[in-house]
Write a structure and sequence with these properties.
The complex is a heterodimer of chains A (380) and B (125). Helix content of chain A is 36%, strand content 20%. By secondary structure, chain A is an alpha/beta fold. Chain A has a nine-stranded mixed sheet. Chain B has a five-stranded mixed barrel. In chain B, strands 1, 2, 3 and 4 form a four-stranded antiparallel sheet that branches. In chain B, a hairpin with a 5-residue loop joins strand 2 and strand 3. Classes of the chains: A alpha/beta (380), B mainly beta (125). At the A-B interface, helix 4, helix 5, strand 5 and strand 9 of A face strand 3, strand 5, strand 6 and strand 7 of B.
């Protein structure tokens, strides 16, 4: 599948923007993507977009233009952006469209996410007892992983330190001040072993991408990057997912493992061929576990990788070069597309102070409840 | 005390899980589909498989705990031959929690309703 190209990207700054709704941020990102691609809204033949908390993406046509195009709303939790990308790519591959838009945006209220048990097929008591929290899941998952594979608390801190250092180099990031390792480790615990600085926070932001067929990209003379693969998978038996009152005694692979394998197979390359990676970092532990789940290292090797600085910009495999969710915040609908937008900038040589020298292939991975993962591989 | 939900706790006490008739797979809580799943009492003792401490008060709704918030521990507890259940912990020193600690099911008074938690498994005198 090398007949889909990314020809434009737009981003509305992440963080908190007073006086602008999530939907308005989405419109800003969409317009920026269109301008970057050198096309008009009227040229777009299909659109896919999503937001968890900031309204229906398809209402954007009121602002962008009533062209009658098919605009489909996408909802896959934190993986929404990845699913929207998958859908736009599928539309082009199938010949339904030569030009498509994928957009994601969100504007979350302050504080932790507060999902309702009934929405997830869970009994009321699960929420009443105080178990309905995503932060607990991440803490429980990383604790088990640390125990099994010898990951230290310090390594959790190093991931966060890298995130804030990279965020300082990203105009669109929310948290743009470096934070030292000691301050990260000594900050108040949210859910042991994760301190306040090791968690992303729900926030705001928007990203849009313009996708084109090979023919259209050539016709436009676009600064194009090939979308070599995009895979979306849901959970197989035995995976350890958020909001699980019980787990099977025997662990199965995660949806991330499935999506990663499918994407590498479709792209015809392996983890060793990737120059830069954006991996879901809802919290420090997630980035660590996802390094292995996506096939970049064996379980436990993260300890040495982080100690050596292997995942810093300039290291062997830079991970989360714009600071990821930790530095950018987590507007659910947008994050999956932010990762691809960052990879697009890297491969076009437009990442400024974050540029990974000579990057030719880029990988993005996003994961969301109740067990969805989307992986995209770009190449130049 | 009224239980926090029906079909959750059996006398003993024991948690009521569901055994998938076709495969023998055990899940908790007991699913509504009683053709596919039969009710089974889960083992009452197990070991901490993973743990964390809830350091901030969850939002209400849905949290129905006291306004006067005290941090509480949560764990996944491996119940041998059955499954790994998620539960609050009670009676543990929050600074001494470790993967592998043995524990036993207890009934907990949660705002006047009977709920479940796992407590330390002491050596029998």
């Amino acid at each position: 599948m090398s007949d889909v190209f990314l020809i434009g990207g737009g981003i509305h700054r992440f963080g908190r923007t007073e006086g602008r709704t999530g939907l308005q941020q989405g419109v800003v990102a969409a317009r920026a993507a269109l301008a970057d691609a050198g096309v008009e809204w009227g040229d777009i033949q299909m659109a896919f977009g999503g937001s968890s908390a900031a309204g229906n993406a398809d209402t954007m046509v009121a602002e962008l233009g009533l062209t009658g195009l098919p605009f489909i709303n996408v909802a896959n939790g934190c993986a929404t952006g990845g699913s929207a990308l998958w859908a736009a790519a599928a539309a082009i591959r199938s010949g339904e469209a030569d030009l498509a838009l994928a957009v994601g945006f969100d504007k979350h209220p302050r504080g932790a996410f507060d999902p309702k048990p009934a929405d997830w097929g869970l009994p009321d008591w699960y929420g009443e007892l105080g178990l309905m929290l995503t932060t607990q899941f991440f803490a429980l998952k990383i604790r088990r992983y640390m125990e099994q594979f010898g990951i230290s608390q310090r390594t959790l801190g190093l991931v966060a330190e890298k995130a804030y250092a990279n965020g300082a180099l990203a105009d669109h990031a929310w948290r743009r001040e470096p934070i030292g390792l000691e301050a990260i480790l000594e900050a108040p615990m949210v859910n042991d072993p994760l301190t306040k600085f090791m968690f992303c926070a729900p926030a705001e932001g928007a990203v849009a991408l313009v996708l084109a067929s090979a023919r259209k990209a050539r016709e436009l003379g676009a600064d194009a990057v090939a979308l070599k693969a995009v895979a979306v998978k849901t959970r197989p038996p035995g995976s350890f997912e958020v909001f699980s009152p019980s787990l099977d005694p025997v662990r199965g692979p995660s949806p991330t493992v499935l999506a990663s394998r499918a994407a590498f197979e479709a792209a015809g390359i392996g983890p060793e061929d990737i120059d830069v990676a954006q991996l879901q970092d809802t919290e420090s532990g997630a980035e660590i576990m996802h390094m292995a789940e996506n096939g970049f290292c064996a379980d436990g090797e993260q300890e040495a990788w982080l100690a050596e600085g292997a995942t810093r910009i300039g290291g062997r495999l830079p991970v989360n070069t714009d600071g990821g969710c930790l530095a950018c915040g987590e507007p659910i609908g947008a994050s999956g597309l932010r990762q691809v937008h960052e990879n697009l900038a890297q491969l076009r040589g437009r990442a400024g102070a974050r540029q990974v020298e000579g990057a030719r292939t880029a990988y993005s991975h996003v994961y969301g409840a109740p067990g969805v993962s989307a992986v995209a591989i770009l190449a130049r | 005390m009224e239980a926090i939900a029906p079909d959750l706790l059996a006398p003993g006490p024991a948690l009521i899980g569901g055994r998938e008739r076709a495969t023998g797979r055990i899940v908790f809580p007991l699913p509504a589909d009683r053709e596919r799943y039969e009710a089974v009492d889960l083992p009452r003792e197990g070991r901490i498989w993973s743990w964390t401490v809830q350091r901030f008060r969850p939002k209400s709704p849905p949290y129905a705990g006291p306004d006067d918030f005290e941090p509480f521990a949560i764990a996944y507890v491996e119940l041998p031959g059955a499954c790994i259940v998620e539960a609050r912990l009670t009676g543990f020193d929050l600074d001494s929690l470790k993967v592998g600690l043995p524990c036993r099911l207890v009934v907990e008074d949660f705002g006047g309703r009977a709920s479940f938690a796992f407590a330390p498994l002491e050596d029998q005198p």
